[in-house]
């Protein structure tokens, strides 16, 4: 058995021992590694991750884009899928981009982009 196969089996066993909520939080933390190349902040900090549902054989995530026609959308979705799969390699991953608009008030800290109390978006 290859080292890679053995590691995947160990991860699969480990993920079956934690709750879906714990896995969703681990996924959210791993998604902090996906940085929007134009803004320089990660998906979680930007508030782009709306929902993560962890099921027995699948993970579904809903996310937003900072602009409706973001040129990096396919890349961001692919990076998100890869980061999710690192946490739960034994599950199918589905990422859906929602059509709702994003604004800086959705960020963990809008001040990171220069927005603060009393400032309009």
TrEMBL record:
<dbReference type="InterPro" id="IPR052339">
    <property type="entry name" value="Fe-S_Maturation_MIP18"/>
</dbReference>
<feature type="region of interest" description="Disordered">
    <location>
        <begin position="1"/>
        <end position="21"/>
    </location>
</feature>
<dbReference type="InterPro" id="IPR002744">
    <property type="entry name" value="MIP18-like"/>
</dbReference>
<feature type="domain" description="MIP18 family-like">
    <location>
        <begin position="25"/>
        <end position="96"/>
    </location>
</feature>
<feature type="compositionally biased region" description="Polar residues">
    <location>
        <begin position="10"/>
        <end position="20"/>
    </location>
</feature>
<dbReference type="Pfam" id="PF01883">
    <property type="entry name" value="FeS_assembly_P"/>
</dbReference>
<protein>
    <recommendedName>
        <fullName>MIP18 family-like domain-containing protein</fullName>
    </recommendedName>
</protein>
<dbReference type="InterPro" id="IPR034904">
    <property type="entry name" value="FSCA_dom_sf"/>
</dbReference>
């Amino acid at each position: 058995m290859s080292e890679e196969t053995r590691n995947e089996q160990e991860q699969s066993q480990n993920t079956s021992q934690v709750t879906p909520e714990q896995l969703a939080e681990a996924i959210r933390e791993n998604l902090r590694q996906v940085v929007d190349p134009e803004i320089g902040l990660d998906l979680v900090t930007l508030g782009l991750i709306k929902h993560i549902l962890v099921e027995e054989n699948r993970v579904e995530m809903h996310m937003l884009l900072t602009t409706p026609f973001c040129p990096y959308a396919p890349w961001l979705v692919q990076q998100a899928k890869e980061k999710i799969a690192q946490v739960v390699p034994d599950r199918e991953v589905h990422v859906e981009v929602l059509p709702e608009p994003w604004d800086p008030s959705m960020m963990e800290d809008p001040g990171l982009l220069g927005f603060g109390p009393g400032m309009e978006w």
